[in-house]
Write a structure and sequence with these properties.
The structure holds two protein chains of two kinds.
Chain A (H helix, E strand, L loop, with lengths): L33 H4 L10 H15 L9 H21 L2 H11 L21 H22 L6 H34 L2 H35 L1
Helix pairs in contact in A: 2-3, 4-7, 5-6, 5-7, 6-7
Chain B lengths: L4 H8 L14 E8 L4 E9 L6 E9 L2 H14 L4 H4 L4 H8 L6 H22 L1 H8 L2
Antiparallel strand pairs in B: 1-2, 2-3
The chains are: A mainly alpha, B alpha+beta.
């Protein structure tokens, strides 16, 4: 149980600021994780509207302006707590970043942290997805090249790109739904069931990076052409 | 993060960018992806059927500077080597040559995987047994 460093009351909710005495906490030995920042349990299902209200409430209470006449240490604490609160909000409000973050603090290697830990050969996406990703990248490059040369991209090429883009957006939607389903399983499960959900989420996140790179680039290319 | 001079050089002047005829029996194609970042890399080799020497290598990579440099370097290194020699190239050699930082090590892994995939494809086309028989001459 964490206690306020100032009045020794145990925390209810966020440990950044004491609900009892209003003291902003100094950087302890162990910084709270992003869920703890909001006084939340480690769960993937988050009520984002409630999270936002809590973010604004804590932001106001921690705001450095309120500590303009406080001691240097209290000002430092307010700055640090505000920065931590902002980081926590940015990550937890996004369902995908939330999953990546939770897996990380649960001790799983995610994203670039995979490097060296697992051979990428063992985690290759399906060959047909890779082919499609590669082909679409070639098309995108062609469009960018012709634009560089001052030519307008061919209408048929753009139409093809639009169709491909829609297909990839649909794949991304489907994947995000699967990710939500696994998140629910993770929240509800224990032991084996939870480990299984975590493994499937890591796999989904791996595939998502290919799709997301492409979707972003297709949106960019189509946006520039419009 | 700053790239090393060698990465910048390969990025600005990539060697052997291009395509070989995928349907040719002498050509092996490796297409691999990095789940860490979503980069994709295609590496192709053309092998002399008599000598098993890789006479030509081409690549095309969609990804960061380190991924492009790793695959560019890989094509340079496999050229002139026999298939068996090329399989001995390790990602750690690429890391050393390009001075890749830890977060970019997976780019070198991807390049090594691409070499293996290309050789694997070539072996499959030509029959692994036959390939090994020639290699042990």
């Amino acid at each position: 149980m964490m206690h306020c460093a100032s009045c020794r009351e145990p925390f209810h909710g966020s440990p950044l600021i004491c609900a009892a005495c209003g003291a902003v906490q100094s950087s302890g030995v162990e910084a709270p994780d992003y869920f703890q920042v909001f006084g939340l349990e480690r769960r993937l299902g988050v009520d984002v509207a409630a999270l936002e209200r809590e973010f604004h409430r804590l932001s106001r209470r921690l705001h450095p302006d309120r500590f303009a006449r406080a001691t240097a240490e209290e000002q430092q604490n307010s700055l640090r707590a505000t920065a931590l609160l902002n980081d926590a909000w940015r990550v937890l409000r996004d369902p995908v970043e939330r999953v990546e973050y939770l897996l990380k603090i649960e001790g799983h290697a995610v994203g670039e942290e995979h490097a060296g830990k697992a051979r990428s050969a063992e985690r290759q996406p399906p060959a047909d997805l890779l082919e499609e990703v590669f082909e679409l990248n070639m098309q995108l490059e062609e469009i960018r090249m012709s634009r560089k040369m001052g030519e307008t991209a061919d209408a048929s090429v753009l139409a093809e790109l639009r169709t491909a883009g829609e297909r990839f957006e649909a794949m991304l939607d489907e994947l995000d739904q699967a990710l939500t389903a696994e998140s629910t399983k993770w929240d509800a499960g224990k032991g084996q069931a939870r480990a299984g959900a975590a493994a499937r989420m890591i796999e989904l996140l791996d595939r998502r990076r290919y799709l997301w790179n492409l979707v972003r680039e297709v949106r960019e290319a189509l946006g520039a052409a419009a | 993060m700053a790239y090393s001079d060698k990465v910048v050089d390969h990025y600005n002047n990539p060697r052997n960018v291009g395509t070989l005829d995928k349907s040719s029996g002498e050509v092996g194609t490796g297409l691999v992806g990095a789940p860490e970042c979503g980069d994709v890399m295609r590496l192709q080799i053309r092998v002399n059927p008599e000598t098993q020497v890789i006479e030509e290598a081409k690549f095309k990579t969609f990804g960061c500077g380190s991924a492009i440099a790793s695959s560019s370097l890989a094509t340079e290194w496999v050229k002139g080597k026999t298939v068996a020699e090329a399989l001995e190239i390790k990602n750690t050699d690429i890391v050393k040559e390009l001075a890749l930082p830890p977060v970019k090590i997976h780019c070198s892994v991807l390049a090594e995987d691409a070499i293996r995939a290309a050789i694997g494809d070539w072996k499959k086309k030509n029959g692994v047994a036959e390939a090994e028989a020639v290699a042990t001459h």
